[in-house]
Amino acid sequence: MMKLLCLGAFSLASIYYAQSYPVSEISDVLKKNASAVIRNESTVLEINKIDEIVYRNSSAITVINKDAVSFSLPKIYYEKGNSVSNIKVTVYDEKGAKIKSYSKSDFTDVAANSQGSFHSDSRMMYLSYTPTSYPYTIEFSYDQKDQNTIFIPDFTPYNDFNISLQKSSFKIINKSGINLRSKTYDSPFGFASVNVSDEDGIKLYTYQNVPAIDQEDMVPNPKKIVPKVSFSLDQFNLVGKKGSITNWKDFGVWYYNNLLTPVSASTPQIKAEIAALNLSGSTEEKVKKIYQYMQSKTRYVFVALGIGGWQPMMPDEVQKKGYGDCKGLSNYMKILLDEAGIPSYYCKVNSSSSSISFDKDFPKMGGNHIILCVPTEKGNIWLENTSQDMAYNHLSFSTTDRNVLAVKPDGIEIMETPSYSSQQNKEKQVLNIQLNPDKTITGKGKFTYTGNQYDFNLSYSGLGQTEKNSAIKNALSTLDFEKVEMSDFNNNRDLATIDFNLNFKAVNYSKMVGSSYIFRAVPIYTNSTFYQNENRNLPFENRFSYEDDYEIVYQLPVGYTIEEMPENSAVVSDFGTYKITFEKKDEKLIVKRFIQIKKGLHSKEKYNDYVSFRKKIMNADNSKILISKKS
């Protein structure tokens, strides 16, 4: 079952006028940086037996501005077999006066996925509400009975930026006789804390007065900042399949036998596919050929049918239909490898831009994506099976540098995905630029990207020529292009590199100073703005390390010479390294620029040091060269 405190699933039944939440009662601390304030949120969780949990949910949100409208809309996520009842919604104005009430009949019921064509047993009921003024408060309460007891949600204050919380409670009444494990994860930055009480075996967890996390520059994922409490029953049910999850090994055996083995059957058609590939060479060569064959005949389509959306499609379905989701495509790839005599592991991972790993000491169901690991004598091969364009043995930034649950016949093994170094996450840029007396430049460039920087440029693969030109023009906005054309685009799916060339003309690059011209040292760079912040509230994070290596060759206009140019310079700090050099050579100026940024999570006290580091780099990038007519 999905976390019940999803975006928009908030309510509290109002009995007295004092409970209708006038906005004047919100403190200034909670209003600061907040688009919405969770006024009072309550979940009562009744565990009745191994295959029955009842959630009684109620909460109230005050919406301060339009940015939080979608967050506050009443939504109920449920699976086939769930029972939802006692739905009530009331909307109040700024002073707490009732505007309107709604019931279950006002809700719309849709499939709970927004990714286009898909098949899903996951559903969502939602209420459309268009506010006429701000602020307002929306109450929402409902009960939900669930036969799946494997998905007890974490208890967190919130999961998003610019949301504050006045009070939230999570009560657990366990009548099942099954042991319920819990683990509290404190905020590593002391941002908030959870209070725990235990009376007659009933656990009550509460948060109070938690300020909003503003989406400051480089702020980590809120999940890395706020505290949480995790829960897991020792015995559980998942759509009629019962199991235990007291340790990763036993849970892995259950997972393998109940979710993977039933969908691991090959077929004569799949056997024929492998035979037709005429595999030869090393294991690595065979895996690559199979993987790229699989990519060529499949596409990603979300599927969440059957056992809670956690069991893959049958491989013959994927083979025949040519589509599947991460589960189905990874399982199909696994069966293809099995037919070639190559073992592989089905791996659950937390896919997100900020790396989040599983707790080795607290086994529970989790993860939101599936990848494949192929062990070889030369090391593990990692396969992302949902992309038709992704390179062989390459994982994107959303799945690297974290652990995975590798499901094996004898249990789950927790394994680490690759962590790419700054040298692997690289951009190489070579520009040849003609400076013109009319303040324009014409140029040719060659760009190469690897590692995570490969990921960020992979989207060009699916674009037509006109779209490529438009996209690169927007991406390289530090130049005022009159025209730009990308050519020779190459996504090397063997080596995980992207290369392309540019032909361009840009206007207003230089400025006249009398009869001379000045222009900046580096034409194309990251156009970011950094400001000192003496009141920074949160840590900051460079989510991956990388290197940029530029060589820029300027051809001077005929009859001109370099009169002034900057000194070579370097900047070294805990955050990375930068250096830039200048060389005159005949009628040319050669500028070489190198920057290395280190991955890291840093305290708020270091933020202004980081800003100073980046400003020094920006100043060096924008340092000026003066050229004049030869006397």
From TrEMBL:
Residues annotated as domain DUF3858: 528-626
Organism of origin: Chryseobacterium turcicum
Name of the protein described by the UniProt record: DUF3857 and transglutaminase domain-containing protein
Record's keyword annotation contains Repeat: no
Source species taxonomy: Bacteria, Pseudomonadati, Bacteroidota, Flavobacteriia, Flavobacteriales
UniProt cross-references to Gene3D superfamilies, sorted A to Z: 2.60.120.1130, 2.60.40.3140, 3.10.620.30
Alphabetical UniProt keywords: Signal
Domain DUF3857: 54-211
Signal peptide segment: 1-18
